[in-house]
Design a protein that fits this description.
Elements lengths: L22 E7 L8 H8 L7 E5 L5 E6 L1 H8 L4 E6 L2 E4 L4 H4 L19 H4 L1 E6 L40 E6 L2 H6 L17 H10 L3 E6 L2 E6 L7 E6 L1 E2 L2 E3 H14 L3 E4 L1 E2 L9 H11 L3 E5 L18 E6 L3 E2 L1 E6 L4 E5 L12 E4 L17 H4 L3 E5 L5 H10 L4 E5 L17 E4 L1 H13 L4 E6 L3 E2 L6 E2 L19 E4 L3 E4 L18 E4 L2 H18 L5 H10 L12 E2 L8 H4 L6 H5 L3 E2 L4 H9 L5 H8 L21 E5 L4 E10 L5 E8 L4 E6 L2 E4 L5 E10 L10 E8 L4 E10 L1
Parallel strand pairs: 6-10, 6-13, 7-10, 13-15, 15-16, 16-27, 20-21, 21-22, 22-23, 26-30, 32-39
Antiparallel strand pairs: 1-3, 1-4, 2-3, 5-12, 5-14, 8-9, 11-12, 17-25, 18-19, 18-24, 20-24, 28-29, 31-33, 33-37, 34-36, 34-38, 35-37, 38-39
Helix pairs in contact: 6-12, 7-8
Length: about 750
């Protein structure tokens, strides 16, 4: 499946149809006192047959999905009872050591909750994962010592051709599949895929075990990253909802899964998939997530892998947590020794026999069509047989290039970055000896290839290295802000581990995801915001178990305001895209710190009413606001004068016609009684920031205090300048509650 291959790119698009072809539409209905059944409603407005109805949505959405022709869809649009009719959208997946790296050590969360009450609440949290399904036989789903499933759980484990309902247990408590939208897009066929919750891809098993897998000792990917593998919340339950198939993940199926997951009783939803930035009322995930938030469900989503392009971040609704990716302090070095004696470092997860010590001829087919990219069919066996091939990165998946080289008779590959990928290195489990190098090293090797009459190379591999510095580093592929839907809300929110992550894998897929890869492994190493998202899903589950009464926005605030922006060399976080310091457009509030998030001191809480006021402040019609909010008797009598007035834990300031922007925020004391906080402001040159009051005194736990911030762009400031950044921090002897601030001149 293409989604398995390298970075799980976020590329959402509607599939195209002819003017008369049928396709899936998602129909949203107005709330009515005595609503008709969805099938009755559909048939009363169109000539559709009963089999046209694919899903009825009742929890995350008020409406249905149906397979219709354009004329039937138009008839529905013209009905007074219909809010909107939207074409189904195709979404794609965004594709150990992390517990130790995050400070979650010991055998379970007992160490994490040092000094905290740890009881059955940890076993009651349920994480719903919407992905490619699950491989239930993994030891990561062992339920030893786990108590029975919470009585409130209403989900099920579906019995299918290759999935036994008894595969579920007290750890993996549910497994469902949703394929109607996919089936219709495939022309009624299933493209040889088995209809079951089983994961034939690997992505869903990887994300599920990252979030809440049980601890398993002595695991690795063919010897790489050997150690104990465990999820972030080993005591939490997992419920798998398969929504992604070979064509991708269709909005109608995702919405059906969100609808069911909320009614099943999940506490956290983890979605390592997404759409391009579109208005919230058109975004299936954003609409479903709004209802989840209203029901108290925390929604974690991946930011996308379209970085380092600016304004590429996805899943930007403020009621969702948007997660970017960073590196670990672990690497997998590999080396290319050239015939001139120069030895260059790169990365690789190659685990085979190796090349030995003898130099081998190195070839680079830069003047032969697409052969420099090592695309399928581009290499001539007579030219590359028995040689190491130099390949430029781009266009095709990295591991596929190695397959092309091997099938043409090559015995090794140097995969070199170009300007598009910069210095970012992501290790792959290549099927032949292969070393990936950055752009600078790649350029030096290119010069060697030009100047040397008979260039040679030999490749070697260094295994697993820990304690890498600097780390974390923001991954170059991680999507960046600003937020193009509502620029007044900073996105992404945070970063988490998302590069070279070891977690569970499907039993029927090779580690590269290539059909020709016949190797099998129970655990695999992957990179992408798909991998960082479930880390935050698991951490949210830990916070939910420690603070059962906290709202999703309180949990998000705790993770954001305690995040750090200093790496293990005591330097500001760096960006792998260019090696310079990172900014909040790349890392949001910073890298998550679970221990500090457990006791944040203060939180920025947000009610559903405030989110509605936020939506009302946008340039939406009432019909469009209702499409998101999904409730009767809605009005916009209360709205913010500016969307940035939302009580968000970060600030995005846009100076336009006015040089002055003023926002009010509200903090809730979740620390101790008698807490006093003083403000510290870090502002860029050319901007004046005034906070009133400058001290907040909380007499009791649960008290709320407001403060107002006035941002002024000083006279004479160049309005065409680059974005600038700062921080507003509330501090006392125990806590630092920090909010990043981004400044833009538009």
């Amino acid at each position: 499946m293409a989604s398995v291959i390298w970075l799980w790119f976020l590329l959402a698009s509607s599939y195209t149809v002819t003017a008369t072809a049928k396709q899936t539409y998602i129909v949203q209905l107005k709330h009515q006192p005595n609503p008709k059944p969805h099938l009755t409603h559909l048939q009363s407005l169109t000539s559709a047959t009963p089999d046209a109805l694919l899903y009825s949505y009742t929890t995350a959405y008020n409406g249905f999905a149906a397979f219709l022709d354009p004329h039937q869809a138009q008839a529905l649009r013209e009905s007074d009872s219909v809010l909107g009719v939207y074409e189904d959208t195709l979404y794609q997946l965004h594709t150990t050591r992390t517990p130790h790296f995050l400070g979650i050590q010991d055998d379970d969360e007992m160490g994490f909750f040092s000094g905290q009450q740890f009881n059955a609440a940890a076993n009651d949290v349920i994480i719903g994962v919407l992905d490619t399904g699950v491989w239930p036989e993994l030891k990561s789903f062992d339920d030893s010592f786990m108590p029975p499933v919470p009585a409130r759980w209403r989900g099920e484990c579906e019995q299918d051709e290759d999935f036994n309902a008894t595969a579920c247990n007290n750890k993996l408590i549910g497994a469902r599949k949703f394929y109607n939208g996919f089936q219709m897009a495939a022309g009624g066929g299933i493209l040889a895929e088995k209809l079951s919750p089983r994961d034939h891809d690997g992505h869903g098993t990887h994300t599920s075990t990252t979030a809440a897998g049980s601890e398993v000792g002595n695991v690795s990917l063919f010897g790489y990253a050997r150690g104990r593998a465990r999820g972030m919340a080993v005591h939490a339950r997992v419920a798998s909802y398969k929504v992604c198939w070979k064509l991708g993940c269709f909005g109608s199926d995702i919405l059906a899964a969100m609808d069911k997951a909320i009614s099943d009783g999940v506490d956290v939803l983890s979605l390592s998939l997404g759409s391009s930035s579109i208005p919230y009322y058109r975004d299936t995930i954003a609409v479903g997530a709004f209802k989840a938030m209203e029901k108290g469900v925390f929604v974690s989503s991946s930011a996308g892998n379209a970085g380092p392009a600016k304004a590429s971040v996805a899943n930007v609704a403020p009621w969702m947590m948007t997660v970017g990716a960073g590196t670990l302090d672990r690497d997998f070095p590999a080396y290319a020794l050239l015939g001139n004696g120069r030895r260059y470092s790169g990365v690789s997860l190659y685990s085979g026999k190796g090349m030995g010590d003898k130099q081998v001829e190195l070839v680079y087919l830069r003047n032969n069509g697409s052969a420099n990219l090592c695309l399928v069919g581009s290499l001539e066996p007579d030219v590359v047989r028995g040689k190491v091939v130099f390949c430029d990165r781009g266009v095709s998946p990295r591991a596929e290039k190695g397959m092309v080289v091997k099938q043409a008779g090559g015995i090794g590959m140097i995969l070199a970055n170009t300007a598009a990928s910069g210095e970012e290195l992501v290790a792959d489990s290549h099927i032949l000896p292969a070393v990936a190098v950055g752009r600078k090293v790649g350029d030096e090797i290119r010069e060697y290839l030009k100047s040397e009459a008979k260039p040679t190379a030999v490749l070697s591999f260094g295994g697993t290295v820990l304690g890498v510095k600097p780390s974390p580093v923001v991954a170059a592929f991680s999507s960046r802000g600003p937020n193009t839907v509502t620029p007044q809300i900073m996105k992404p929110d945070v970063i988490g581990p998302g590069v070279n992550i070891l977690a569970g894998w499907s039993g029927v897929a090779g580690p590269t995801g290539l059909e020709a890869d016949t190797r099998r492994t129970r655990y695999n190493i992957l990179s992408g915001t798909s991998m960082s998202c479930p880390h935050i899903s698991g951490l949210a589950a830990l916070l939910k178990s420690a603070h059962p009464k906290w709202s999703p926005s309180a949990i998000k605030s705790a993770l954001m305001t305690t995040a750090y922006t200093v790496d293990n060399t005591n330097s500001m976080l760096r960006d792998a895209a260019h090696g310079q310091f990172s900014t909040p457009w790349a890392h949001g509030a910073g890298h998550v710190d679970p221990h500090k998030a457990l006791s944040p001191g203060l939180v920025y809480d947000i009610s559903t009413k405030e989110y509605i006021a936020f939506l009302c402040s946008l340039d939406y019609t009432m019909k469009q606001v209702e499409a998101v909010v999904n409730r009767p008797n809605l009005n916009c009598t209360w709205r913010f004068r500016d969307p940035g007035q939302l009580n968000y834990p970060s600030f995005s300031i846009m100076f336009g016609k006015s040089r002055v922007v003023r926002y009010t925020r509200r903090l809730t004391n979740v620390g101790s009684a008698g807490s006093v906080y003083d403000v510290v402001v870090d502002a860029p040159q050319g901007v004046e920031v005034d906070v009133k009051p400058k001290q907040l005194v909380f007499k009791n736990v649960g008290d709320r205090m407001r403060f107002t911030v006035t941002f002024v762009s000083k006279k004479g400031v160049n309005t065409s300048r680059d974005d600038a950044f700062g921080y507003i921090t509330w501090k006392n002897g125990e806590n630092q509650v920090r909010s990043p601030v981004a400044f833009s001149w538009v």
